[in-house]
Amino acid sequence: MHLDKKRFINRGTEKENQMTIQKHYEVEVDSIPDCNLCNDHQLAVYDCKTKQGPWGNLCEKHFSIFGVGLGLGKGRKLIIKGKS
Ligand SMILES: [Zn+2]
Question: Is the pTM of this model over 0.90?
């Protein structure tokens, strides 16, 4: 009985951790903004920190060139609200 309870708590914590991680990697928005670096209204895929320092909305291509990665303090993937 005691063991079962412990296992249940562990499972809950694991799920919570996964949700926290997801929160650090994705951001919900009402509409996907344009990439800050494209001049042809390419939709951004990430809200992320660039190698130059400032944050911006970047498409896949510019993210691969200027993005520093995903995670806390680095960048998040843009997700349309209620679509995930
Ligand atoms: Zn771009």
Answer: no
